[in-house]
Structure formats: C-alpha cells, structure tokens
Design brief:
Layout (H helix, E strand, L loop, with lengths): L1 H19 L23 E4 L3 E5 L8 E6 L3 E3 L10 E3 L5 E6 L5 E5 L5 E3 L5
Antiparallel strand pairs: 1-4, 1-8, 2-3, 5-6, 6-7
C-alpha cells in the first residue's frame, strides 16, 4: 500500500511538471524576454504571422536573411542549452536567435504576435 501511494505521488508530480514545463509566457507587451521555461530553453517555435523576417542581427534595420510564413517551425540556437536564445537589440526589444540550414544564424522578433514556443513533441 505504501509503495502504491509513493507511485501515485510520483506520477502526479511528474504530470504536474509536464504541464508546467512549457509555461513560457510573453510579458504584458507581448514580448518574450527569456526562452527559459524553468527546465531549459525552448528549442522549437512556431510562426504565427503571415510573413516573418529573420535578420542578420537583432534589430528592425538589419539585413533580411530568411523569410518565414505562418506555420513554419523555427529552431532556436541555445548553444547546446547553455545560453538563452533571446537577445535584446539597441532599443531593448527581444529577438530570438534561430538556426538556419547550414549552421548560419538569424534573428526574429521575440513577440507573441509573431512566434510561440512549442512543446518538445512537435
């Protein structure tokens, strides 16, 4: 009976953790200031807008290297989980560092109007 109680407690705890692991939310301005969900960094993000520019560096005036469309999946560059892929530009706006094919990087605006973090299963 004691073992069964422990097992039920462990399963309940794990299911609670699984529902909160992906609790990353944008702030009141709609900006993601961090990609950290408390358990590490979000790797997969989905494009929500019809067209999203991915730029050479963080900032609206930077060169566009890639364009994404609604439903495209982005892979954040976290330096193998060691660093937050969200960086601030000169105007303190957050940008998500994205991996391109071939290992190059670009940056998309980290705002909930444009992107959303995904659970690791997608």
């Amino acid at each position: 009976m004691f073992r069964r109680s422990i097992a039920i407690t462990v399963v309940t705890l794990l299911s609670t953790l699984c529902t909160t692991v992906y609790a990353q939310r944008a702030n009141s301005d709609g900006d993601y200031k961090s990609a950290d969900d408390g358990q590490g960094y979000h790797i997969r993000w989905e494009v929500k807008t019809d067209r999203l520019n991915c730029r050479k560096s963080p900032g609206d005036k930077q060169q566009v290297l890639q364009q994404y469309v609604k439903g495209d999946l982005l892979t954040a560059d976290t330096n193998d989980g060691r660093s937050n892929p969200i960086l601030m530009d000169a105007d303190s706006k957050p940008w998500l560092r994205v991996k391109l094919a071939g290992g190059d990087l670009c940056y998309v605006r980290a705002r909930n109007l444009y992107i959303n973090p995904l659970k690791s299963g997608k």
